[in-house]
Amino acid sequence: MRRIWIAAAVYALSAALFTWPLVLHLTTLFGASDPSGDPSLYLWTLGWDLKTLSTHPLWLLSGRIFDANIFFPATGTLAYSDPLLLQALFLWPVYAVTHNLVLCYNVLLLASLVASALAMHVLARSLVSSEAAAYVAGLIFGFAPYHFTHLNHIQLQALYFLPLSFFFLQRMFLAERRADTIALGVVMGLQAISSVYYGIIGGVGITCAAIVLALVERRRRDWRLLRRGLAAMAVALLVALPWSIPYLRVAREAAAGRNLSEAARGSASLVSYLQAPPTNLLYGRTEWLRPGPGQWLPREDGPEQSLFPGFSVMLLAVGGAVAGWRASRKTALVYATVGGLGVVLSLGPDGIRWLYGGLYDLLPGMQAIRAPARFTVLALCAGAVLAALGVDALRRRFARAAPVVTACAMLAICIEFASGAVPFPRPPALSSEAGAWLAAQPGSGAVICLPMGFETVNTPCMLQSLEHGRPIVNGYSGVRPPFYSAIVESMSHTPEVESLLALRDLRAEYIVSDRPIVAPPPFADVLVERAQFSTQRVYQVMWSPEAASMLTVAASGAPPPEPGPANFAVGESATYRVRWTSGPLAAQAGEATISVAPPKAAEAFRFAVAATTAAWVSKFYEVDAKLETTASSRLLPLEHLETIVESGRHIDRRHQYDGASGQVHLTTGGAAVTLPLAMNARDPITALFYVRTLPLATGSTLSFPLTNNGLATRVDLTVGPLETITLDGRAWSAWKVQPRIRQRVARRSAPVITAWLSADAHHIPVLIEVAAQFGTVRVELAGYRAQ
After folding, report:
1. β-pairing, 446-450 with 508-513?
2. Taking the model in full, what pTM does it have?
3. Half-sphere exposure of 221 (CA within 13 A, CB side)
């Protein structure tokens, strides 16, 4: 214990030096490179956790703590990113005494570095039996450039349980004591709680190490050892499961998870291991390992790509692997394998695809990995252990100069790791005049902050919510509720009719705006200005029966033409080939079917759409989608059901349309929200059949409202000339139809859609071409049955 306390003091001093001058300004500087974005998100997360633990401690046991106050009216929103609950429990005494959230955040950063170094120190000393070598390993693992590359990701500093997992795994193999088995499970469970990413990554690393150890020790058929391993897994699940249930719910409700294409964008490349972070004093600021375009090393973008561990670490690790092969073959083999696996998996699907894809398909949680580059922590952990072996071998080789060997190794590592004086920014504001005013008002009505967007524009509103304690519609996180896009779309032109409808249906009570808001004359009394400050104004939303009635009338607008006679019948089915036409090859990417099913109960029509990707596409991006919409005799949607399996994600959505009240009720998993529905609005499926019933003529135009996942848009459709389309040797005379979707918020370039409908009585979609940012797709009619 004395050695542990001495090591902790050494690493605390190291943390102060590597993050200088943060230790001198723990309340006035912010331990991140940029206070916006993720640092503000996790500052809010810590604030929510600490305030909830202080005021409602039992919510931690009941799970209500996950119902954070962002993305109203969604629930379980704390699970949209790492909840930092374990870290908050550690920090609560600091918060209880000081009530200073910035201080708690900075203490967490420094404590995470110290704890990571100390945990590696314990592991290395148990494997190498050298205190000096353990200090080298602790220095590497606790203060590697990886930590400072991810200075904006406080959740990724939670590396302290990873070495302890390997430590107890080794003890379980050596002593086979029940206490070590339980400790291994507890530590792995705590790793998953502290960081979802590291829980998955650590589980992969521990499994790899256990397999190699079993093979090396010739214990492949040791059922007693297998039982202990399964027991450790069971303990880990028991520890992590209560904290994981909200994540399972979010995965179902918000379609959380990443497909292989998204994972590939967050992967490393081998070049990444020769690229230093820009803050690195020796290699980054000098651009020795940060070269620009056209130089010998192509620069990769983003923090995931700066994975250079230092030449001294690489040399010591290689030397340790070679020396360990002679003196400690088991340790060298285990950690060389774990390190190699970390490098390979950090390359993501573009590395060894069958390996990454197999884990993606088989291992629960792998779908959550947005950035496979973070598997490099396994290489960092293994490299620290192998470097300790290398230092120990050098100390034995040069026994008389052993202290000098250790000092030189640590000096070289410190020089390569140093960032100099880190330019830490000022912390984001945690109090405001508007926040204090809202905190003093009675009730707990929801707040919307304007401007409202999808990214970091929402973080000031989130931090402000810690002051007033009310739920807010805004939010920023790695996952968003399915309805959020529709709300942003609606609120983009406040205070027009569409945004007033959203305010009414969301039951929002206050608007905090950075600009004056003047409602249209019929609704002038709906938005009442209650407070005006230097940078913000606060409006209260107040509905009278007269205003609500006028809003319904105003929202109806000019109705589109009524549909013509139905030119389709039950049993109609059209099959399509979906071709990917971007690039030199026109390859088939999948197939789709659109059919008319027998109606039930009060519905007049039932339409079904099914789509699957081709086998070669499924290796990159797999989709199996089944959509069904029921409609009234006027071809207005009544209910829409979606069941989509998308590269490991399972999405179940239900939309219920209430045209009389102008509302659409969206349910995804267990989450539900009500959003405004324009009069005569159709979903994409009923819109297709609606257009088919209309008379078509060259030059004619049509405009009608469209609702898609609650998103209110409008379609402007123009009919072009008759053209001849030849498919599979058959010539079709078809009307060229060009729909244009009007978006209020242009988040990305709108797709350009061109369709050709047969010029016969059925107006069958014969060909559809879609040009979007992801490429060009051609949908060709492959077969048709009238009924």
Report:
1. parallel
2. 0.84
3. 0
